[in-house]
Amino acid sequence: MDNLNKNNDIYEDPRKIIASALVELGGSDKRITFISCDSSKGASGDPFRQKFPDRHFEFGIAEQSSMGTAAGMATTGKIPFITAYTPFITMRCFEQIRDDVCKTNLNVNIIGNNCGLSVSTLGPTHTVLEDAAILRALPNMTIISPADGPEYREAIFAAARIDGPVCIRAHRQKAKRLNKENYKINVGRGVILKRGKDVTIISNSTMVSKSLEAAEILESLGINAEVINMHTLKPIDRDIIVESSEKTKRVVTVEEHSTIGGLGSSVADVLIKNNPVKLEMIGIDDTFAIVGKYDELLDYYGLTPEKISKRIKNFVNN
Amino acid sequence: MGKLNNKEIKELIEKSYNCRVNILKMMKKGEGHIGGAFSALDIMTVLYNKILQHDPGRPKWDDRDRFILSAGHKCLALYAVLADQGYFNQDILWTYNTLNTKVQMHPDEKMLPGIEFPTGSLGHGLPVANGIALSARLDRKDYKVFVILGDGESAEGSIWEAAMSAAHHKLDNLVVIVDRNGLQVNGRTKDIMDSSAFEDKFASFGWEVRTINGHNFSEIYQALSDVPFKEKKPSCIIADTIKCKGLTFAENKFEFHHWHCEPDKIDDAIDIVEAVKRKELAQVG
Description:
A: alpha/beta; Rossmann fold; 40% helix; B: alpha/beta; five-stranded parallel beta sheet; two-stranded antiparallel sheet
């Protein structure tokens, strides 16, 4: 596909990509501010702080008030980015996001750090499998789960452009470069990374590269899979889901998130209303994650290319 | 600023009690949070008539002072004051408690000009005010941000997070007024969650604190005129108030936090409030 980067040996740290994007954005737009909840060093804020100290605000470990403060700032025309570990900056302050940010439809941009199983050794207070599910229920919220470096960079610029709340779900693991350097994100529009006719695989974030590898395995087994990067969870791209599923008649979603309320549920919502074909949801089923190294957990939850392809093979053949 | 003269005090009494009458007229269509509205009304009357730099003709004027009603359920007072100021036609008040009204039981900034921020869930206003105050400093603007908190509301943890960060960031363009009426929906604040010694609490969080009688117009005006009380510190005014002040049979009764009134009692209530107004005016001399 034209969209794909041919040299796939590049792995990038999302935090570094976000950090440099914020500095670039801050340099071109003085409305950009950064709100840290004792999260600057670990979460892409330090380069911004060093470059624009007057627009960097530290609030300590206090996500509820920090979210309200971001909203207050946005009422004056500022474009705040606020960040912390995903569970704390989405759940601890969920009502502030709902009332102060979404109800008002303010340009507050939340970077949820270390989403999914990112910090798999820290246990279920820090690993987070429910954030997309709860945020998706909020009117006015845009949710972006970038898959690689160029997409993380684009997501930051898009968030500032969108005149309303955006949550970028940022992973800690280095991301395999999939897109070309000059990639442009179209928020709300999925991207077909590989065309196929037997099954549609829809994934986001870390699972996009895993799905592409799974599709290669499937190809060797004679199954021709279409792979879609659904970087925007909300608003979901209805058209691409309907068009692809009309062709393949089978859909699989793959996400590093609970199968309740996330990408799988979003795709199911579209299919049941528009084209009710068979759907397989691959993700983590209604549980708090166990503890272990990241790769060990992916394997435990069946999120490796080998295990994904095996499930899809069974799904297609049954 | 100097002190209020008797003529000014009388004008403020007239305005404040006329707003109470309008609130009672609104309640002819049913229930409402009258208790907190009446306890905070004298403070809001002074704010909008004497303190805030604002222009009802330009509600989004960049340099305006901001007022955030963190205890959003007291918004009957805000509606009455904003209508009196000319932010919108007074007739809108009479749509209270009707389908899809703009004067909701909690204020919505998209419904009416003059409402800075939607509130209702408690504990949200002070953090939002912090953000506005920081923006003012960043933009080198002189406007101030005023917030009314309820004493019951102040059990919310987010208030104290924000109190800490306002002092940390030295927000001397931020003013909190605690409407300390001592009652909340289920009874006495002291019994439900003892929030006495607010003075000590805010002072220990790094604020400069003053206590006033929240129904004495001169004291309200003096305190609000003196802010910031100290450079590089946020100002906190603890206003001792009477829940449902002015409606004598309901004063200091928690049952009137939210009054499910009978419409035929409203005319009597208006008479009572008018009588209190006359008495207060007479006391000024």
